[in-house]
Amino acid sequence: MVQLLPLRRRGATLFVSLSLAEPDATTLVDEIDQLQATVRMVRDLWPFELDAWVVLPDHLHAVLTLPFRDDDLAIRLNTIKARFAARVSKRAMTPSQIAAGGTHLWSAQDKVAPIRSRADMEIFRRQCWTDPVRHGFVGDPHDWPYSSYHRNSRTDPRRAAPDIRASA
After folding, report:
1. What are the residue boundaries of the Transposase IS200-like domain, all occurrences included (predicted)?
2. Do 102 and 93 form a contact (C-beta atoms < 8 A)?
3. Residue 40 covered by a domain
């Protein structure tokens, strides 16, 4: 079952979905360099492991693990959203978002699901990899550039060629 913030668990591994307020926006891929820089900056301030992720035009999914002694997921997600909104160029925002200072760039609710087993981990990693296929952006996860699929398939030989292509 999907839970909403705050979900606080020390050392927890979680599946997170963040969405833009406008469902057809392309801001996340248009401003991918800014998003990646923001995530790196937040990881430097409040460490977490980014086990898998995918960025689509209007939402992203991530599997992340918090440090054992730290349970504050909300500070990480809120900082990513605020700093990205501050960094993103005004051309990527609608007039109403510009007028609100970027605060309405993101949807108000973050979706968070705890990962309690290896099976859960594989399900959510696969969701990260297959989401661009499911949304019709590509036919094969390998073709989507904004995903950890490339990193994970290179570093884990068991995942070198999963059969997760779109059906014809």
Report:
1. 9-127
2. yes
3. yes
pLDDT of residue 109: 83
163 occurs within a structural domain = no
The rounded distance, in Å, linking the Cα atoms of 90 and 93 is 5
Report the amino acid identity of residue 136: G
- DSSP conformation letters of 90-154: GGGS-HHHHHTTTTTSB-S--EEEE--SHHHHHHHHHHHHHHHHHTTS-SSGGG-SSBTHHHHHH
CATH of the domain at 107: 3.30.70.1290
105-116 pLDDT, tens digit per residue, is: 888 888 999 999
Cα(102)–Cα(100) distance, integer angstroms: 5
Total number of domains in the chain: 1
Residue with tokens 């979900």: 7
pLDDT, tens only, 55-88: 999 999 999 999 988 889 999 999 999 899 888 8
**Segments forming the whole domain that contains residue 63:** 8-120
Residues whose CB is less than 8 angstroms from the CB of residue 103 and which lie 6 or more positions away in sequence, other chains included: 85, 97
Residue 92 lies in a domain: yes
Residue with tokens 């990260």: 128
Classify strands 13-19 and 3-4 as parallel, antiparallel or unpaired.
unpaired
Characterise 49 by phi-psi region: left (phi > 0), alpha (psi -120 to 50), beta (else). Answer: beta
